[in-house]
């Protein structure tokens, strides 16, 4: 559960079950609505770099072109200042704006439909009465005609959208129901962690379908399996580890990366202990996506070989030159500092997209109240060619007892093409051989 992609998190993030006002900073001086907005991480999508909070303009990529988040401040001209409560609720539950146009499903109203009336009113009051109005015109999408026509979205809704409010399961505990409500609705974990179909729809919206939260890949990152899968899911995670991860972005063996760091910084670290425990309770109740998978066995052969200086396996030299200083020769990393690579569920996923992306792009840990040092991992796109990255990751995915499919140079090349011009200095095209010098 190491990530949730900003490119596909909502155009408006909302809602919890009714609760007493609880401040993100531990005090009681903020409204329930502000707590909900913080928990929903609304700022992540609705604030472009350097812009005023909630004024929109953040670019979000889709398979057919970029869209830009909207201004959700109470400005009456460019924001939502003229929205009635009914308009607000309709946008969140049905994906239809005040003027009648359909919202792109990049805004997961399929999850927000579960929000109950009390929470919806609290959010509406917060945005209308406490958020500062900002005059900032909305930007049209970059999606070309005819793909930018909105009327097909009405048909999409008829086929894929369930607008029913969350209904508690009487056979489960209050804590389980609380966690289910948060995960399915406010936190909309399925937006990234559930695979999508040919029409970009989430293949499942709750635990009644076994594919729910079994992992999804978007924009070159793979959000891992959150079910009880013992190999690459949460089967080996204890509830308290899930709570610690959502609170600080790290555990003794794992660390958040990609856009999940933003989610933790701006959202989940501010949730109450009760809410985090409820989410952990719900997640731990999910049946394993692949019951036949087992916990990786401990295997010290790789460690012994590296200690002896045996670099005969492809990728071993790249690992020693670039990774061992932080992740150690035994692949165990350092608790709450550098994540383990041995038996890490993100490493063991069948889809290596996240591993490739973090090697090419680098990464940063979340900065939170409990973990104030945002340690960074450097990018290696500039110094490792496609085959070297593939060999390195294949080595990691097959060492210390890890058993995951090999990574190919073609997979690396595909994701390298998605890098920005600044990131894309490509050693595959360099005339001079790659010397393997350390990244300074």
Model description:
The chain is mainly α. It has 2 domains: 6-284, no CATH class; 301-429, Cytochrome c-like domain (Cytochrome Bc1 Complex, Chain D, domain 2, Orthogonal Bundle), CATH 1.10.760. It has 18 helices and 6 strands. It has helices at residues 32-39, 42-46, 85-94, 109-112, 117-129, 152-160, 174-186, 190-193, 239-248, 260-266, 273-284, 301-307, 316-322, 324-327, 345-348, 353-361, 386-397, 409-416, and strands at 59-62, 65-68, 216-218, 221-223, 363-364, 376-377. The strands form 3 sheets. A two-stranded antiparallel ribbon has the order 1-2. α7 crosses α11, α16 (353-361) packs across α18 (409-416) and α17 packs across α18. The longest helix is centred in the first third of the chain and has 13 residues, at 117-129.
From the structure above, extract its key features.
440 residues, disordered N terminus, disordered C terminus, 18 helices, 6 strands, two-stranded antiparallel ribbon, Cytochrome Bc1 Complex, Chain D, domain 2, mainly alpha
Strand fraction? under 5%
Average pLDDT, rounded to a whole number, is 88
Helical residue percent? 25-40%
Structural domain tally: 2
H/I helix tally: 18
Order of helices and strands: HHEEHHHHHHEEHHHHHHHHEEHH
Multimeric state: single chain
Secondary-structure-derived class: mainly alpha
Q: Uncertain spans, ≥5 residues at pLDDT below 50?
A: 1-28, 431-440
Spatial separation of the terminal alpha carbons: 30 Å
What is the approximate shape? globular
The radius of gyration is 22 Å
Biggest beta sheet attributes: 2 strands, antiparallel
Number of beta strands: 6
Strand order in the largest sheet: 1-2
